[in-house]
Amino acid sequence: VDIPIPPMKSHWLAEICIDICIFATGHAEQNIQYRASSLLFELFWRHSQQGRANGNISVVASVFLPFLPKILSHVNYLSTLPAKGQIRKDILPCALFILQSAPVGLVKALWRKLAKRAEGKTQQADSDDRYGGISGSGAGYKELNTGPTHLSAVDVEIDDEPDIYDMLGLLNLALTTVEYEGNVMQMEESDETENDSDENPTWRREFLLSAESRADNDRGRSASISIQRGNEAPSNADQHSTQNSRRWYAHDCSMIIVNVCRQIVRETLGMLRPSFSSSCEADEGDVGFPGVSGSRSMSDIFLQQASFSHSYDENNSDDEDGANKQESLQQRRIRERQLESLAFSVTDTIIFVRAVTSVYLHTLTMKQSDVAIAKTLTAAVEIVKIFGIKVFLTAVGETLQHWMRVTLEHCGARRADVRVEGSEFLNLLLRLTWEAYGSFFRIRLPLLAVQIEVMERIVAVSATKYIIEQRRLGLDPVIMSNESAEASLTPLWRTIDRLHNQSASRNLSFKSALSRLAVLMKRLFKAYLAAHALEIVNRTQGGSDNVPKTNAYVQRMRVSVHRIVSNAAAFSKMFLGNQATSYLCSVQNEAVEDSFVKAADVYSSTELPSHRVAWLRKLAEFHRMRGRFAEEATCRCYIYHTYQEAAKQHEHIWSSSPYLPWASSSDGSHPYGGVAEIEQDNASIVSGRLGERSTSFRKIFYRAVDSVRVRSGDWGVGGGGRYLFFGVTLKSEF
Description:
By secondary structure, the protein is mainly α. The protein contains 31 helices and two strands.
């Protein structure tokens, strides 16, 4: 291969070494590929260590800055490689090192150069295949695109050079590569092994070992339970693993990626102000980020003054008087702004917002630290405030339901730092949507469609940890009771209750609409707990052999669970009476029936009819199990009428679609198929597999196969071929 020799500059040798290694990673021999990537990693690592020792790490990173545009040309090739393969694990950390340590001025200049290359690329013939396209019925897109814009007349040269979209795609690839690999199930099972066989042997070569230290309350709990069982408390002081090192590594890399995205947004925003009709605009107005309202139009945003760097030669203006000097400075600033401005059309801006939000959605979907999640939610708030709710809704398209999934999940987090940030983001979307459209229609449908799925995921994760903790203590696992499930959902209940009763808005119509939305969410919350309680009661009808026994850990947790539930809604007592924490109990038929009916009434025949049918079927099955055949027939009749009304508007009815990261992951499924019977021989916590006889309640919320808006072949595609910007959403979802 003929490798062009770069110009003889101070970093020419570094560039030619990088070119050789990058070209060698595409060799047919796998050993040569691995050798080239490892040499590249060794080059960056060695110089980074020397830079830290000598105190000139920013100089070292600036020398290797040309590596970023070079690797952007190979981003499609990297997407075809395994996420945890050696090549990506060697190359992508090198890019993150440059992003972290390079001088800010050089990195910002690179973002401006890449953003300039993206001008007009959304107008190409294959833009829909590359960027997902924009639906004409999107959130106010017709309103934004009415009439000609002064940007549409700008002639730009279209080329295939790497642009800012490729950079954001590279960040998505880096997120997948640096993701924390270990999970709670694998780590907890290591106590039962003697040689730590569950830990990947390569981890010990790549990360530092550290002693595993559990929280003081966990050690105290373990000691007390062991004393009750007549055993000595186990000592974990001598156990060493790479868990802490891998967690810190994933956290640091994720923080770099999020900060880089925010830097790209701010630098691009400073170039998205192409109005230079008056020279007085250079000094008038606020410098920096203006107070852009979330509902303002694109023209209002474009016409805001932008901050810009101004450098001038003071020696040339020493002999000028004050008036001439001021006029000269203004002319210089205007010329510099014209050189650094972006001629983005409305479509270009929407696609740019889509690319940035794909990185944020990817980050919120993965296992991240609380700091990384809070930082990402703050960055998402910035996007909505800067570009407006209409641009945001148009950019995310059908993936708004995925945003509602991850937002609700973080609204139900136990940690207050994460829950507050998630609640603030949800409140912002609701407030700006009401201001822009006068209703919650754009947010309400996806929010109600995914609430039960999010609740099931929260309960499933808690149930998995509940059983793992018992196994770690050497106890026979007991599945989680209905009151414990309600305790795990209490943070989400508090978030919904704040929407209902603690809104700070003075707009009475907005508060009234928000209160009605919160009431609907509370009905779904109550119905899910009723269904969960019903499944637990149905388990006990098989006989005393199926009744799980209690243990010391469960007895100790009952006090905390009861205290948490008592300060919330306490729906478990409504459905199971005073025996909510027991497994030999009977369900309150009237309360369960009333909850199912209200949950079905949340939806209608023209809005999410499949969800309405799911609850009606659950209610019909409830009546059939109790011999109420007349009530069952009434439910079947309502199902028929729902389908009849929905069929008339089948082409115009919106319906939710599965979220692929959740559908392909075992984190959101019960370790033993929800509240089904425990099978010690077949069930495996480590693998998270569900048996064929699983009776998980969440299955009724899976949509029909023929109504899933996924093109053929999308499910089995790996890498980033059909995934927009190599993230977690499909191109067919836009």
